[in-house]
Amino acid sequence: MDLWYTENHTDDVKFSLKVDRQLATCQSDFQRIDIFESKEFGRILTLDGYLMVTEKDEYIYHEMITHIPLATNPDIRKVLVVGGGDGGTVRELARYKHIEKIDMVEIDEKVVELCKEYLPTLSCSLDDERVTIYYEDGMKFVRNTPDSNYDLIIVDSTDPFGVGEGLFTKEFYGNCFRSLTDDGILVNQHESTFYDSYANSMKRAHSRIKDFFSTALVYQAHIPTYPSGHWLFGFASKKFDPRRDLKAEWWNSLGLVTKYYNTILHTGCFAIPNNVRNTLRETYK
Ligand code: SAM
């Protein structure tokens, strides 16, 4: 008997992975959580049926969402991760000895609990002494965050519907701007432009971020299990341009071993193809 996990990438496109077995399933107060085991992609976390991470390609997403801002500003000391309950982003952040404090605000405690049990290669740094986890809505959390409290905010959220919806609003981005220091950087998972449904939410999010930040760029990565395989991240800052301000020598001197990110790719990933440029026409004139 064959068991398959299938996600609809559009009404007319399906993406399927053969799975060996289901390791966990639960309906939390916020969403349905499933963890599967597969031969090709290792363990897989899905929320409400949407694929969040696989053991095989998660490093691409987590390295790109973390090392781009860290290699741009070597003085990042205090970080907020919004979402990110699997722990992959915190794992990458925790590799930087100079980071003093990592707050993570995750709405769903059950995601963290299951990832600690079934995805230890991602969740392995959630017990780092610099990490504090707040179980609440990220949108409300930043509403109550003091001004200039963080050097970096990473929005490692689900898609812009359901519990994640508030993390793509103008109010949320405005509060992120206020909560960041003058050197502050906001990085977020920015969806993709290939399929219309994702492109529209990405455009909306991008124009809202641009209303607040003087620098608002997107950068790209190839993530095989995400819709279309082509994924974008947003980089917004009050001061830094990641292409101009990359501290390559400093970052390479840290000796961090990465499987995807490097300081040549750092500037290259901001070289956006025409289909994305056209979607973001107003930014890339
Ligand atoms: N890499 C993933 C992706 O883009 O597909 C993101 C994965 S991570 C597991 C997303 C997390 O965001 C989930 O654990 C979810 O519970 C959390 N989340 C969604 N909405 C949230 C909110 N409003 N506040 C805090 N966390 C939220």
What would your notes on this structure say?
The protein has 10 helices and 13 strands. The protein has helices at residues 58-72, 88-93, 109-118, 120-123, 138-143, 170-179, 196-210, 248-253, 263-268, 274-279; strands at 3-10, 13-19, 21-27, 32-38, 42-47, 50-54, 78-83, 101-105, 131-134, 150-156, 180-189, 215-222, 230-237. A hairpin with a 7-residue loop joins β12 and β13. The protein is α/β, with parallel strands linked by helices. It has a 7-stranded mixed sheet with strand order 9-8-7-10-11-13-12. A 4-stranded antiparallel sheet has the order 3-4-5-6, covered by helices on one side. It has a two-stranded antiparallel ribbon with strand order 1-2. S-adenosylmethionine binds at residues 47, 52-53, 61, 82-86, 105-108, 111, 137-139, 156-158, 163-164, 166-167, 189.
Listing every helix as H and every strand as E from the N terminus to the C terminus, the arrangement reads: EEEEEEHEHEHHEHEHEHEEHHH
Shape: globular
Identify low-pLDDT runs. Answer: none
Bound molecules: S-adenosylmethionine
Q: What is the helix content?
A: 25-40%
Distance between the termini: 54 Å
Task: Give the overall pLDDT as a whole number.
Answer: 95
The number of helical runs is: 10
Q: Nearest-angstrom radius of gyration?
A: 18 Å
How many beta-strand elements? 13
Percentage of residues in strands: 25-35%
In short:
Helix content is 29%, strand content 31%. The protein has 285 residues and is an alpha/beta fold. The chain is globular and about 55 Å long.
